[in-house]
Design brief:
By secondary structure, this protein is of the alpha+beta class. Helix content is 62%, strand content 8%. The strands form four sheets. It has a four-stranded antiparallel β-sheet, with helices on both faces. The chain has a four-stranded antiparallel β-sheet with strand order 9-10-8-11. It has a two-stranded parallel sheet with strand order 1-6. Helix 6 runs antiparallel to helix 7 and helix 6 crosses helix 20. The chain is elongated and about 90 Å long. Keywords: Cell membrane, Membrane, Transmembrane, Transmembrane helix.
Length: 733
Amino acid sequence: MTRLYARVVVWLRWPVAVAMIAGVAVAAVELPALSTGGASGLGSLVPPDSRAVAAEQDASERLGAPILSRTLLVQRRPAGLTAADQRAIVRQAAAVPRASGGRVLGAVPYVNHTAVTPHGGERATTAVTGLFFGPDVAPLDQPEVARDVVDRLRPPHAAGITGSLPAQAAQGDLILDRLPLVEIATAVLVALLVGLYFRSPVAPLLTLGAVAMTYLLTDRMLAQLATHSQTAIPQEVQPVLVVLLFGVVTDYCIFFLSRARTLLDEGQGRLEAAIEATTAITGIVTAAAATVAAASLALLVSDLQFLRAFGPGMAGAVALAWLVVVLFVPASLAILGRRAFWPRPRPVAPLTVAEATAVTTPADTSRLVRLSVHHPFVACVLCLVVLGAGVSGLAETRLGNPLMASAQEGSEVRRGYEAAKAGAGPGVVAPTVVLLRRAGLQRDDGQVASFQRWLERRPGVAGVLGPADAGFAAPRRLSLQGDEARLVLIFRDDPLGGRAVEGLRAITAAAPAALADRGLAGARLTFAGDTAITAEMARTTVASLLKIGALILAVLFLILAVYLRALIAPLYLLASSVLALLAALGLTTYLFQGALGHDGLSYFTVIVAGVLLVALGSDYNVFLAGDVWREAKDRPAREAIVTAASRTSKPIALAGVVLALSFALLALVPVTLFREIAVVMVIGLLLDAFLVRKVLVPALISAFGSVGSRRGDGVPRRGAGRPAVSPAGPPSP
């Protein structure tokens, strides 16, 4: 069947190539791009059943005004704000609604002249004014309105506008600004690596053509998906999508081109080589693409709305990559023939099978594989020790969404955040509102004050505003319709970082007992604010990954079991991919939280790594194990492992390097989130390509074979069959 497909594509090479180019051009011109709509900030995508959001909305409705501000003006004078400065701050806060044309309902200033949030001993150096907007102002429009107000009022010693919403808006603008640079840099990288590997300027042009077609189709498809599903796709997704598609399409092209070049060097004609290469590689690329697409579709079971939308989008992107590669690349090879590898000279005499195999089997790699195969238990133990050392870092991992702390150095959002942090502590930019509700609570102001003092003693808490504070002595100042009290909780650390999230979790777990001890048993306790939302997102991320991971592993097991006709082998192949993922996350934790002193990792980093590394690792499983199984039809198991693993190690290593360097270019976006993703993907892909596939998997196949597994379980059994076909080399002798 595959050979028939190859013959049809080669026979229709010109119509196929022209039709695909024309179709992509029409889609690019007629359909809107993802960047023109359907994208939003990651921070606004909260679980639909968020208790924190529900508590905030409920309290705001009863109060008749917002209870939280996510856009703040920070003013700072290290030498101290004068009395005149402080009067001006209060006076201008009262003038904000008029200056904004009614778009801002009110402005509440806080000056660090009290001991509520002691930080570095400073007093009266910093003012943080929260702006409360009306419902007619879209969240991501608030920063622009705030800047317009600042331009009108010209407040003294303004350090900048900060908060979670300005940080989201600034991050989105920065992504769109740097995305062309990421695209250009990735294209240059692909051209350089493919050009050096094939020593030709034509092969990288063919590869980049396939990448460009795939990216344009995917961009338009995701825009349509966002429009029809009415689900915003985060702007954070777009750079990840760029480097993923560049890397995946390049990998698939490398295997097609490698096979075609070998066949041409053996003396086959242009059309015959295209047919044989398409016959050999199409099944492998199909199985590899199916693993990534299946892993992407598993996102449908996520509790996060944007993942449920992004899953089918990512699966569609991989399907488009597969379609372009299995149609456009074979047709182009049939048209170009040896010109695809110009100026590579035609061999004076065609290479023999043994010579071609020697070219694609480096001696040092073969020795490493032989050691792993002949001493499998030693190799497995050493690999597990290395990977286990990385996995140990997971015990220290904290999840958050540090939008302000990770904003670009020198940006207005970062300046405002750093000024607030220096004068009053970072928690003041996003306080958590603690809502207590019980009939007659207004009469229990002493118990509420006692609970406030309990909160103040919790680890990581800088201060709490409430009835126990002198400035809030009158219980009515806290009352919402007489039966609800509001406490303002300020953390010592970044309120969107991992430490504050863990601190709020600990408070949430211990608070019911503390309320009961103070005579407030039965009171309804809820938390509102960005720390509470981030805690829910982190918790939902972990829960979703467990569900998604279980489904991904089940689906990939079925694909590998069908492809390899084995039951045990898919288990240890998938286990090796999971180990590489966990080790990459642990090592990333050691780097960012340990060496660099960051507060935690972004939950989006964990989502990206969790889905992509397992799926892409399964790609390499297909390339390696599939070749081992074919070799084993004619060779003893260990000889088959050495032959296949040695031959595929170079293309797999190149594929891993291409993907790793592509993801490394995400660091061009000067946001900590993308640097985390770049690091975890580089570590994971290099571990997978150079340790797991070169050493651990050959050792595992050999180890399971040595204990007598022979029938469709751990290793293939020896038997008659056609010569093996490899994506990287010629048929086996």
